[in-house]
Amino acid sequence: MSSLPEEDTDNVALSALQSLVHDGTPDEMAQNFKEQGNDYFKGKRYREALGFYTQGIEARPDDARLREALLLNRMACNLELHNYGSVLRDCATVIAANPRASKAYYRAGLALLALERVDETLDVCVRAVASATTARAGAGAGAGEGGRIANDGDATAFKTLRERAEKKAEELRKKEEVRAERAQRAEEEKMKMDAAFAVRVFFSSSSSLTYSLSLSLSTRRDRFFKDRNLINVPNPDGSSNPYAPKFDPEDATGRTLIMPVFFLYPEYATSDVIAEFVEDTPFGAHLAAMFPPGASAPPSWDDKGRYVDDGSSLVVYAITRRKRLLKVGRKLTLRDVCRAAGGGKTGKDGLEVKDGCLSEKYQIGIWSCLASHNISRR
Predict the structure, then answer these.
(1) CA distance 135 to 142
(2) What is the total count of domains within the chain?
(3) Long-range contacts, 286-292 (Cβ 8 Å, 24+)
(4) Domain that holds residue 294
(5) Which positions fall inside the Cns1/TTC4 wheel domain (predicted)?
């Protein structure tokens, strides 16, 4: 073929020519399918090429080399199509018939590496070299099938594959170390929180120590949040939040809470997060750090340059579960806001904590930038 036909062609002459591939012996049909598959593969039309190689295999050729070539070519197509399981299945078929088929080992190694099964990739490299060495010992170096399997090109290819697998193994090892370190830190923080919850319950309860220690962790956490008018709303799909409440390590009593807090700017549909808001820190301290007067450049989203902490223009509101808006003075702390969130004529209320944070919907946020709003301590 000098060029490939377009897809879904209605060319009658071409259809008649293609029908000829079904005539002849199994070997002749398989060879025809192989050649058509090669044309499509060169044109990077891998799915069509795969179909022709499969038809060649299904023709059941008697020539073992032809059958192996069709399987190897189908493996190449499946590598391009990321069908790695199919690559490995064809590899097993080829190796069962010819344990010295270096291309089968190599393409299986590529598939295993793509699947990040690095130990198996390295094992494939070792087995390929071992099979080639065994073949040379039986047929003499450079002679017969074994000599062709262990040629310089194959040796270089397997060396490169092994180096890639070793590099990937190192990357995965480092990723696992980072993951393990994060998990360990999270577990240590959780244990610290659990211990603090237990201490909190013991000192605030008039019940016996035995009863306090028998409380479930969820009950301890609920009681701890209840003291601060925080309503815990766990994520049913598991936590995906990188931030989480914790206790201030500088507080020897272990009772000062540090919370992640979202700030929303509704007129710009954007937000900030303070990952570690110590509950006894006044909001004014954070505003001064976020929007300092005389800053060289305002936030990229503040196209009008109005978000400047001049002591009177920024107005902060906290939204409670019952949708009450609490105006937050500069001198108020997060603890003050939590305390205020629990009252109201509507009954018990509070701030929702979703997935470990004061949630994006019921959070503390900057809602306007109007100089006419005065901020005062309640």
Answers:
(1) 10
(2) 2
(3) 287/314, 287/316, 287/330, 290/263
(4) 228-368
(5) 250-359
Does pLDDT of 207 surpass 50? no
Degrees, nearest 5: CA angle 44-49-51: 145
Instruction: Give the tens place of pLDDT for each residue, 153-200.
Output: 678 888 899 999 999 999 999 999 998 888 887 777 666 666 555 444
- Condensed to tens digits (0 to 9), the pLDDT of residues 141-151 reads 443 333 344 45
Do residue 41 and residue 137 come from a single domain?
yes
The token pair at 62 is: 């008697």
**Residue 181 lies inside a defined structural domain of this protein:** no
| Rounded Cα–Cα distance for residues 116 and 352 (Å) | 41
DSSP state letter for 22: G
Residues 132 and 256 occupy one common structural domain: no
Residue 233, domain member (yes or no): yes
Q: Give, for 29, the enclosing helix (H) or strand (E).
A: helix 26-42
Q: What is the pLDDT of residues 52-103, one digit of tens each?
A: 999 999 999 999 999 999 999 999 999 999 999 999 999 999 999 998 899 9
* Structural domain includes residue 237: yes
pTM across the whole model: 0.49
**Residues 263 and 362 occupy one common structural domain:** yes
- Measured between alpha carbons, how far is 54 from 89 in angstroms, rounded to an integer? 13
In a domain, 220, yes or no: no
156 and 21 assigned to the same domain: yes
